[in-house]
Each structure stands twice: as C-alpha cells, then as structure tokens.
Amino acid sequence: MNRLARLAAVIAPVLGLAALWGMSERTYYEGTDWEVPIQGYDPRDYLRGHYVEFSYDWPGIDEFRDAPPEMLCLEGDAPNLTRVTTDSDKPCAHPIRADASGVYGWDALTRGRLYLGQDRAMELQGELQERGQRGIVTIRQRDDGSFTPISIRFRPLTPEEVAERDAQNTAPFMPPAIMLPESSGNPPPSPQSAP
Q1: What are the structural domain ranges in the chain?
Q2: pLDDT digits (tens, 9 = 90+) for 100-116
Q3: Residue 60 zone, left/alpha/beta (φ > 0; ψ -120 to 50; rest)
Q4: pLDDT tens-digit profile of 74-109?
Q5: Which of 16, 40, 67, 106 has the greatest number of beta carbons closer than 10 A?
Q6: The whole model's pTM is what?
Q7: Alpha carbon distance 112, 137 (integer Å)
Q8: How far apart (Å, rounded) are the C-alpha atoms in residues 61 and 85?
Q9: Closest by alpha carbon to 152, among 20, 51, 76?
C-alpha cells in the first residue's frame, strides 16, 4: 500500500502537468491568423531574452487619440486584414480585446512583443534596421477575443508607404518670426524693464 501511494504521489503531478501542457498547446493552435502591419520595432533586449517589441499599425485607425480601446473588430478575409474598427456597438465576427493582466495591460492593442529563438533573432536583426521594409506580425485571434503574436516577416515598402514615410521625415513648417515695426531706432523694451 505504501509503495502504491508513493507511485501515485509521483505520477499525479506529472499527469497534471501533461494535461496543462496539452490544454495550453491546443489553445495556442486554435484561432484565426491575421497579418497586422507594425512599426517602431525594437530589436532584442539582452536582459530579457530574444524578442522584438513593436507597435501595431492597425489599418483604418491613424492613432489612438485618447486612451487605447479595450476592443477592436478585425475586418477582411483572414489572413488579409483590410481594416479595424473600434465601434463595440456593432456585432463583430473577429473581436480582439486587451488583456489587462498581460505584459502591456490595457495598452496591449497598441504594443506587442514576440519572442524569438536566438538563431531567428540574429537573422532578423539586420531586417529590423532596414528602412525600406515593412514589418508584418501574424497574430492568432481566438473566439474569446484573446490574441497572440506568433510570427514576424518583412516585405518591401509600397510606393505609397515610401511617400508617407518621406512626408513624415520632412522638416515641419515654421511660421515666420514676428517683426516689430521700426520706430525711433530704440530697441524694444525688455520684459524686465516693464513697470
């Protein structure tokens, strides 16, 4: 009896861990894959492992003006994402929600992190620094609204994307300096000398 109890004490935790691993693996592989453009990549951080941090560049939304939304609705024929909307009043076939308990909390719909193995990280380091390419992250969206970044790839920028990038890099327009009319030749009073 004592021997049987010891055997059960060893086998039960192993079986429990195997069941948890199986459920996690099944959850990882279920869902719909979508390709999402990204920007602002940060190649590897040696202190926290090999990963790429990025900002999602959701089509259909220029920028989140106020607080990031809690939910987005993906539109298009998977994996081709045509646009996203933030209107939670309409029915949505492919919702994604921010996970408040995740790495980025409520900001999870604006920023992401993808873990890479060491070989893949070394391979991507050069591509991350190439200005003529666009990063695309594949996310796996599940029916409950959760999602996981699963891979990254790069493609050349389209002519429209090159024009948009170049327009952002031009110097901002500076208004002309205000000129005071010339008077008696005396310089204008300084703010310190004002009564």
Answers
A1: 25-166
A2: 887 787 788 888 888 88
A3: left
A4: 999 989 999 898 876 788 889 998 888 877 877 888
A5: 106
A6: 0.68
A7: 9
A8: 7
A9: 51
- Between CA 164 and CA 176 the distance in angstroms is 26
Contact 75, 82 (CB under 8 A): yes
Closest CA relative to residue 106, chosen from 141, 65, 69, 72: 69
Q: Which residues of 95-104 are buried (b: 16+ CB within 10 A; e: fewer)?
A: bbbbbeeeeb
Angle at 164 between CA 158 and CA 165, to 5 degrees: 90
Pairing of strands 80-85, 71-77: antiparallel
Residues 25-75: tens digit of each pLDDT:
776 667 889 999 988 766 555 445 577 788 888 888 776 666 777 889 999
CA atoms lying within 13 Å on the CB side of residue 149: 26
Residue 138, C-beta contacts closer than 8 angstroms, at least 6 positions apart: 33, 34, 35, 36, 79, 149, 150, 151, 152, 153
**What pLDDT does residue 47 have?**
41
138, 165, 167, 178: which is closest to 154 by C-alpha? 138
Q: What six digits make up the tokens of 8? A: 């059960």
Please check whether residue 59 is in contact with residue 37, taking contact to mean a CB–CB distance below 8 angstroms. Answer: yes
